[in-house]
Design brief:
eight-stranded mixed beta sheet; 2 domains; Rossmann fold
């Protein structure tokens, strides 16, 4: 398909799907759902949580920033050559620092890496290199493309450890909502070949030494998914990511459940949760497995909170403290 044909096909998709599209600087157009933003999340919660205030990015003193580093290049996607980016933050003071890779939420469909910049900035000020990562979302590529992307991002950080003052033996991964599920899956599936992909630095390890899950589901084999009718499942974020409902292909959903890979080699895990039990699925079972293997874990449930609480004050600062305290324990 040539460029003109791609533009025509994408135009048809716009008319019939309502998707929003964005144009990259290199002229390549690819599908992008922009429905989930801090503002749209605030609109949804402001009546029930009038105290919520959107967290704004603010680069702390002593932290350097580098935006849109290309961590992998995909030469032959349906939309042409695709570059994947991350934003990096690191202490100005020379040293060798642990690194935390952050994955945004948005139902595997929407959101972008800018949503994690405030968290990345503040954690970098505590003595960490942090990275807010872009990955392909479901309008552009179905599961497991996002898993391949995140694994490639981990490999990029390890391969460029010296350049960015990173200790390659101390890499943590974290995420919120869908990003929490991805972080847990990537972190728990170290060595599982089907999730590695072939993107960027394939000879470098994608293993991590700590996992942080902020309201990310760990087990898709739950009544919440199995109980949906086919009609309702059409609107499920998971069904849009997998390209199939749970009832149509439960094996795929179960394969992507982080709990399937938790075991004796899983690194320490931190769980930071809202007050909504729906987003805790699998957590207690995962902790039971970790306890069996004497692997350290922490749980912090913040009462009276909406699901996207990590995007807002007054909950943002406690989240930063929970993450930094945990990383200090397991990585420093």
């Amino acid at each position: 398909m040539n460029f003109s044909q791609r533009i025509f096909a994408l135009s048809i998709l716009i008319l019939f799907s309502g998707e929003l599209f964005s144009q990259r600087e290199n002229g390549i157009i690819f599908p992008r759902d922009t429905s989930f933003t801090p503002y749209s999340a605030w609109v949804n919660i402001k009546n029930n949580f009038p105290e919520a205030r959107i967290v704004k990015p603010q680069l702390p003193a002593g932290v350097r920033a580098k935006s849109d580093l290309v961590y992998a290049t995909l030469p032959n996607t349906p939309y042409g050559k695709r570059e994947l980016h991350l934003d990096l933050f690191r202490p100005e003071k020379p040293g060798k620092y642990p690194v935390l890779l952050l994955i945004h939420g948005g139902g595997w469909r929407s959101g972008n890496k800018s949503m994690d910049i405030p968290l990345a900035q503040q954690i970098a000020a505590k003595g960490y290199v942090t990275a807010a990562v872009e990955h392909r979302l479901s309008p552009e590529a179905l599961y497991p493309a996002a898993v391949y992307d995140i694994k490639a991002a981990v490999r990029f950080l390890r391969a460029n450890a010296k350049k960015y003052n990173i200790d390659p033996k101390r890499i943590a991964i974290g995420g919120s909502s869908a990003g929490g599920q991805l972080a847990s899956l990537v972190g728990a599936s170290s060595g599982v070949k089907k999730f590695e992909g072939t993107e960027g630095n394939p000879g470098v390890s994608s293993a991590v030494q700590a996992i942080i899950d902020i309201d990310g589901v760990l087990d898709f084999n739950t009544p919440d998914e199995k109980g949906k009718t086919e009609e309702a499942a059409k609107k499920s974020a998971g069904a849009l990511w997998f390209g199939t409902t749970f009832n149509q292909n439960s094996e795929k959903w179960i394969e992507a459940s982080p709990i399937q890979y938790v075991g004796k080699n899983t690194p320490p895990m931190l769980f930071v949760n809202s007050a909504l039990p729906r987003f805790h699925f699998g957590r207690d079972s995962v902790i039971a497995i970790l306890n069996k293997h004497k692997i350290y874990s922490e749980v912090h449930t913040i009462e009276n909170t909406p699901h996207p609480f990590w995007l807002f004050h007054p909950w943002f600062d406690p989240i930063v403290n929970y993450i930094v305290d945990f990383l200090d324990k397991v990585l420093k």
